[in-house]
Specification:
By secondary structure, this protein is mainly α. It has one domain. Helix content is about 60%, strand content about 5%. The chain has twelve helices and five strands. The strands form two sheets. Strands 3-5-4 form a three-stranded mixed β-sheet, with helices on both faces. A hairpin with a 6-residue loop joins strand 1 and strand 2. Helix 5 crosses helix 9 and helix 10 runs antiparallel to helix 12. The protein is globular. It binds zinc ion. The site of zinc ion (ZN) has 6 residues, from helix 5 and helix 9. Its cofactor is Zn(2+). Pfam families: Peptidase_M48 (PF01435). This is M48 family metallopeptidase. Keywords: Hydrolase, Metal-binding, Metalloprotease, Protease, Zinc. One of its GO terms (molecular function) is metal ion binding.
Length: about 270
């Protein structure tokens, strides 16, 4: 949508030099910023976020703390295995997994590039159980490993920098992106109202691979249908959860998830 504002020639230059084919999905993605730079910026934003929010410790709530650690570690192990089986372990270089539960009534969870995962306590009643949590964490982590953050930041950069700066940015891969670009892309640190929803393609990919990762980690992928149906019912109110605002959910999406189920179930049964 934002790209439409660019002239065709500028768009041509960006597409020519800025696109990379994703090793897992095969889809061509606009990549103006490097994964390394993004992971570095993500780490700064992640630490800042943790310093400003109440992180739930094992001492404070052992049951909820433990379930987030357990699900996160199982999904990370499944992803490591999946990429190794495809000979793509290098895609995960720089990933140092961390899982945190933070006290917040918001229904939300996210994974930053580099494997920094945060679950909000407000998500737990909607997830309902360990498997529901695995569905959400699998989906969020899939966004990260599929470079969706890198792609969205790049789209924002392309839209905001304008034609004259594009070539210099492309020549200088170490460009520092503005914090507000990062924040607009990442719901965690965004102000209310400026969250950019994931594209349908990104959502579809995160559903697809998130289901596979959760299934490989030993969680029944069927739970995804019930979870997203619960999420769909939470929409429309004044207090629509952040997770729903960044992940538009409707009957089409749920039908798509059902269509993905046979493949996910094969991974679930093959463990
Ligand atoms: Zn998503």
């Amino acid at each position: 949508m934002l790209l439409k504002k660019l002239s065709l020639s500028t768009l041509g230059i960006i597409m020519l030099f800025g696109c990379t084919r994703n090793a897992i999905s095969g889809r061509s993605q606009l990549m103006l910023t490097s994964e390394t730079d993004l992971q570095s910026q993500a780490l700064t934003e992640y630490k800042d976020f943790l310093s400003k929010n109440k992180v739930v410790t094992a001492a404070a709530d052992k049951k909820d703390y433990d379930v987030v650690q357990k699900v996160g570690k199982r999904i990370a192990a499944a992803i490591t295995k999946y990429y190794a089986q495809k000979g793509l372990s290098s895609e995960l270089s720089g990933y140092k997994w961390e899982f945190n539960l933070v006290q917040s009534s918001d229904v939300n969870a996210w994974c930053m590039p580099g494997g920094k995962v945060v679950v909000y306590t407000g998500l737990l009643p909607v997830a309902q159980n360990e498997t529901g949590l695995a569905i959400v964490m699998g989906h969020e982590i899939a966004h990260a490993v599929l470079h969706h953050g890198q792609e969205r930041v790049s789209q924002q950069q392309a839209a905001s920098i304008g034609g004259s700066l594009v070539s210099s940015v492309l020549a200088n891969g170490k460009n520092k992106m503005a914090s507000n670009v990062f924040n607009a892309v990442y719901a965690p640190t965004a102000q209310m109202g400026v969250i950019l929803p994931n594209s349908r393609k990104q959502e579809s990919e995160a559903d697809h691979y998130g289901l596979i990762f959760a299934a490989m980690a030993g969680y029944n992928p069927q739970e995804a249908i019930a979870f997203w149906e619960r999420m769909e019912k939470m929409g429309g109110a004044d207090n629509t959860p952040t997770l729903l605002r960044s992940h538009p959910t409707n009957a089409t999406r749920i039908a798509d998830i059902k269509r993905l189920m046979p493949e996910a179930e094969r991974y679930y049964k093959a463990r």
